[in-house]
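Recall from the previous lesson that a structure prediction takes nothing but the amino acid sequence as input. Here we apply that procedure to FHA domain-containing protein from Capsulimonas corticalis. The sequence below is the only information supplied.
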Amino acid sequence: MIAGVASGALTWILTEVLRSPTDTGVVPHAPWQAAMLSVLIGFSAGIVEAMVSDNPAQRRKALGSGALLGFAAGCGVSIFGLFVPDSGFWPGSVTGGLLLIATLTGATQGLARRSAPLALQGSIGAIVGAAMGEVALQAATAFDGGPWSATFSRLVALSAAAGLIGLGSGLAPDLRKKAWLRSLRAPHPGNEYPLASIVTRIGSGSECEIFAGGVASVHAVIEYLPQEQRRRLRHMARTGQKATLLNESPMTSEKWLTHGDRIQVGDRIFVFLEPATQSMALPPAPPRPAEPEPSASRPEPIAQAPFSLPEELLVTAMDMDSPAMQAARLAHSGGGEPRSRGAIGSRLVCISGAYIGHSFPVQHDPVTIGRASANEIALPADTHISRVHARIEYTDARHILSDIGASNGVHVNDALVVAPTPLSAGDVICLGETLLRYE
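The prediction returns the following tokens.
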């Protein structure tokens, strides 16, 4: 809107200087005047875009795209003016010129951000603004009662028409945005960055949609996964460079984003805003089975000797495992003894995560594991796994584990599953924040 009003005022100044003494009307009577308005709208939009950008490369790009916009719109309006008689615009010609300016304004702003949705939304908003600008131009003719009133009316009309185009092109994408980042720290606190693209890059490079100084060229990305209908944050910088912080914790893997999450890249701090996830709370884990109350008439269970490895083997295994896997090896939940190493199991027992203590049978039928309720093993409380994360099939008298599109992978005994992997009793499967032991 600021760019539109400024360009309207500049157009008024130039047209007043170059206006013919016999031309006293409010609405411009020459196609070159409308073309001038187009050029100035584009250039002013580029200036304003550059002023709010803190990336030198983005400033140059904004000025260039604004100048290109103005040139294209000016040429278009000039061609449009070839159909206009010398005596003035025929009915509807002003509207047509404004609509052309508006469409190019909105489209160029979206394409400068490499976002087709922003281009479409900006064009629609600018067209609505152009229609309102035509009303402003026509309304201004009512005040054409003398040389000074006509001059002032032209200033009001041109500024209002151009301002409404700028307002519409900026307001429509803002009203339609579904997710965005808001800057919480200088250089531009309060600035909002719509996340309208499939991938939004954050870093110091000119290719990044969001600039952060003193970090890698592309330091982090926010990806939109249509199948999940959610956005996730990925750290892209090499080892040894500054960490990407999510809620003040360094990132070690991809993380799903939820409304209100705080993201820090270098010195820039943003808050992630997505109203669709505002009420998203972690589903409660199913209640653990209640322990039966002791009864005098009920016989005491027969104590069984716990399964254990020789101490020297246990130490060797623990030395090779990560801390999380050490805890998994030592934990033992559920009834019965675990089968011997290498045997065929018949269930998965959760030893870490929201479902700790729960047992899930695996027999001869295929079993899928994921967050969606349609899976045979549904884990909705673990938001770090995909809707359909992994599959277990019974083939050649073995259970085979496969990754079927997991967003952050499947691990068996700390090894990433890259191909169908046979399971042996005692194997520990990691999916998101859930550890399952195959028994």
